Amino acid sequence: MSQSAFSYPVLSQKTYFIRTFGCQMNLHDSERVSGVLDACGCLEAAEPAEADIVIFMTCCVREAADQRLYGQCSSLKSLPAAPSGKRVVAIGGCIAQRDGERLIDKLDNVQVVFGTSAINHVAELLAHAFESDEPQVVTVEDPACDATSLPWHRETPYHAWVPIMTGCNNFCTYCIVPYVRGREKSRPIENIIDEVTGLVRTGVREVTLLGQNVNSYGRDRYGAPRFAELLRAVGETGIERIRFTSSHPKDLLPETIDAIAEVPAVMPHLHLAVQSGSTRILKLMNRRYTREDYLDLVQRVRERVPHIALTTDIIVGFPGETEEDFTETLSLARVARFSQAFTFIYSRRAGTPAAEMPDDTPRERIQDRFDRLVHVIEDTAHAFNQLDLGQVVPVLVEGVSKKDSHRLQGKSPKNQTVHAPVPEGIDPGSLVGKIVDVEVQTARTWYLAGEMRGEPR
Ligand code: SAM
Ligand code: SF4
Ligand code: F3S
Questions:
Q1: H or E element: which one contains 451?
Q2: From 213, 274, 284, 313, mutation site for ligand 1 pocket: most ligand atoms within 8 A of C-beta
Q3: How far is the CA of 312 from the centre of ligand 3 (A)?
Q4: pLDDT in the model for residue 8
Q5: What is residue 259's predicted lDDT score, i.e. its pLDDT?
Q6: Are residues 353 and 339 in the same domain?
Q7: Does residue 162 sit in the same domain as residue 128?
Q8: What is the distance in A from the centroid of ligand 2 to the CA of 96?
Q9: Do 272 and 377 share a structural domain?
């Protein structure tokens, strides 16, 4: 489908609401779906009750997500009629890609299902759904679909998510992502650089480069530049802050560590998912590194970028995890000194190899391990933040604190949340997207707080 299809008149003045679950990939896909709908003349609604079109961008990485989607779909049935008289419910994202037609059978108020490689069809499918009661489903990969060429509705003017690749080739044994997002496909470097250059021109100050494993960027394109070169090239565009996620430890090359250390715009923050501290469990997970490899990598990164913030993902309760395995995870977290961790209880995903592994650890024991891990992460995060007491840190302002509209909130280079009172006479709204220096006076587990110094820039 070409961009000319965005002129479907039947969608003009329709109101839409999108709820997004899952990772940054989905967040970005939602920005593209909104962009397409805006280009069709639709208007964004503040809540489902005010919307003619309700779209769920779904995630299936853990089991609870399926239940949540079913609950949310059925709660739409009790809403008052849509403003236009007809409400079309659409499901996109990873559950849509996995289940396709079956969602129409399971959820009787859903009319449209579009897979992760079919977001260029969303306007066409919605338009048909308004005209007929026939279900509209597309989950096959469309070779002509290049989501990065679709219109784009960004939530924040100063930050942009920039996908550099889609899919994943790693097949970690617990993970559903490679089955729903397909194989790795890197965007050509020129495309990415053009996009970032354009973003800089429109006032974007920070980009986050996205991929399930950015460290394997370019591997699917023979002779093409790899991730370290991409970081250096993005650093030349004039963008002030570069972040990226996610990094697989087995593919973090020395030249990438050099680029992180040497490109001034690359922020001193590395999200390096470890998943477990036990070599035995890592092998069962098919992660292809050992505990020692990971800790050696952390040491090499810290030698090049001494104050780097290291964040991670950890799964607790993988099938067969023993107390000894878990103790290794706790000790790795302490040695690695994570500044933050996304901790997950293992969730069985049908169709993955781990779903067939014997799994008899009682639920309470797993919950107890999870709680102990959270305490260790709180300790390491608290200790990490103390290092910034008395320092002046440049903060990219995201908005004001929810509790106090005269307290700005933003992110430090190390991705810490920072608060500071807005000085008298300054409109807090005028600071959004500005970089302000904050002298850190308080360092808590999940945020820093201090006073603004100098002028916003
Ligand atoms: N590609 C990223 C990486 O490897 O760093 C991870 C992407 S995945 C969407 C985000 C996190 O979800 C994973 O790092 C893992 O910790 C968690 N996850 C994936 N499958 C899971 C499962 N079946 N149960 C619990 N957590 C899971
Ligand atoms: Fe899932 Fe592993 Fe791929 Fe990450 S690297 S998306 S955890 S299979
Ligand atoms: Fe979820 Fe799909 Fe992302 S399964 S975590 S939304 S790639």
A1: strand 448-453
A2: 313
A3: 17
A4: 52
A5: 98
A6: yes
A7: no
A8: 19
A9: yes
